[in-house]
Amino acid sequence: MVLVTKQKADKQIPSNLAIIVGVLLSSEELDTLEDDLTELEALVTTLGLVPKERIIQRRNRLVPASLLGSGKIDEIKARVLEIGANVVVFDRYLSPPQVRNLEKSLNCSVMDRTGVILEIFAKNARTNAAKTQVEIAKLEYLLPRLGGAWTHFQRQRGDATQRGMGEKQIEVDRRRARDRIARLKKQLEQIDNEKRTQRKARRRELKVAIVGYTNSGKTTIMNSLTKAQLLAKDALFATLDASIRTLDPNTRPKILVSDTVGFIRNLPHSLVASFKSTLDEVLEADLLLHVVDLSHKNYKAQLQITEDVLKEIGAGEIPVILVFNKIDKLNEPFLHKILTQAYKGSISISAFKEEHIHLLREHIYKFFESNFVRTKVAIPHSDTSVLSILFQHCLVLDSDYSGENAAVFDVQATPATLAKLKAYVVQEKPIKD
User: Do residues 294 and 335 touch, judged by C-beta distance below 8 A?
Assistant: First the structure.
């Protein structure tokens, strides 16, 4: 059985039409698959394609060679010809042989969900680090698929010093791809070392990482919190690099905020591995702001997927503040109030309302203040390096410079910062609310 959902015809037929295909197994729910295909259509649109039709086939099991049965492939081929589609996009992962078999049968380009995500990442990569990360992931994905690009399998001629037929063109291409991957990984290792050095220089600052499902509003919140002017678009994967800004230049200790790449269902493992340096900003954070698009009908699933990815990369134990965003788009006026009661310590906001951003900023301050220690330290007047640490990373509540050899400061700071001032501590006690 094939379910077909036709989209409204455009007045002008573009040359980049796509058909979206999903397979519903007997153990799966149709509503879940429909939601997944809606997300895939958004991904395809972000890539610049126009999804014209959605085809869902019910099956008891997948066909190893082509995912679908031959009769259903013929039906899709007929639709490709009828609407003039250039590409068929499958929601499931396709093996290299499946791609080759389907392209041969359908006589058009075939992509899977992973390939679409990789193409979007390649399209949105801006910095050298992001471009390198994406190219590695894309080459590793394409390497076993190179055979589909060489149907002739002709051999190169050997030269005067080399007898025989030479190498197949596909073998040459694969070797070049592997060499390119090796060079890129060395380049990425150098970039990682530079970022590691930068993170080491920031080790005394408090760090907040904004995480969440793609297009949940992370960059808009980042801009509002830090007065930054980062590019924020209503599009999937608009942000690929970790941008770091100061929450408030006047705050001591200094609090740094980083905007990170968004997560998505079935995020390719190659991308998770390639973006290790970017995700390290998450791993080294003292606090995570988990942004949830509350206006999305599948916000609960997106919340869970983000939590699962955080656990996968080793960030499951880092303290989290849930930020339910886009409440200005809600049709249910009491939903955000119910959720903030259900999720302890969470907050509901609209990133475009200044008063909400002020509340979020106070939420962050209170989290860190609850972990601050109040103490008195006596620092010699001549010890300028320690004084520098004090004024950069502590909140100075009071000071007394009357001592002959040392000044006494009443400060608040994190235990990590005070550990560096341990030799100068004269009194220590927890902060009282």
Answer: yes
CATH topology classification for 202-369: Rossmann fold (3.40.50)
User: Would you kindly state where each structural domain of the chain is located, as residue ranges?
Assistant: 2-113, 125-155+167-198, 202-369, 373-430
Residue 207 three-state SS:
strand
Pairing mode of beta strands 395-400, 406-413: antiparallel
CB atoms within 10 A of CB 67: 24
143 secondary structure, DSSP code:
G
Place of tokens 């705050």: 251
Between CA 77 and CA 80, with CA 79 as vertex, the angle to 5 degrees is 65
2-113 maps to which CATH number?
3.40.50.11060
Three-state DSSP state, 339: helix
Asked if the domains at 202-369 and 373-430 fall in one CATH topology, the answer is no
Q: Rounded distance, CA 112 to CA 261, Å?
A: 21
Alpha-carbon distance of 242 to 58, in angstroms, equals: 41
Over residues 310-358, the pLDDT tens digits come to 998 888 888 999 999 999 999 888 899 999 999 999 999 999 999 999 9
Q: pLDDT, tens digit, for every residue of 277-305?
A: 667 778 888 899 999 999 998 999 999 99
CB 245 within 8 A of CB 251: no
- Does the bond joining 415 to the residue before it have cis omega, within 30 degrees of 0? no
CA distances from 24 to 2, 77, 110 (A): 10, 19, 19
- Whether the CB-CB separation of 415 and 423 falls below 8 Å is answered with no
Q: In terms of C-beta density within 10 A (0-12 exposed, 13-18 middle, 19 or more buried), how is residue 166 classed?
A: middle
Sign of the Cα torsion 185, 187, 189, 191 reads negative
- What's the whole-model pTM score? 0.75
Encoding tokens for residue 331? 């049709």
Topology of domain 373-430, CATH: Alpha-Beta Plaits (3.30.70)
Cα separation, 135 vs 149, whole angstroms = 18
Residue 331, phi-psi category: left (phi > 0), alpha (psi -120 to 50), beta (remainder):
alpha
The conformation of residue 331, written as its DSSP 8-state character, comes to S
Backbone phi, psi, residue 136, to 5° = -60, -50
- Tell me the two tokens of residue 250: 């006047």
The total number of residues written for the chain in this structure: 433
CA 421, 426, 429 angle in degrees (round to 5)? Answer: 90
Between CA 205 and CA 372 the distance in angstroms is 13
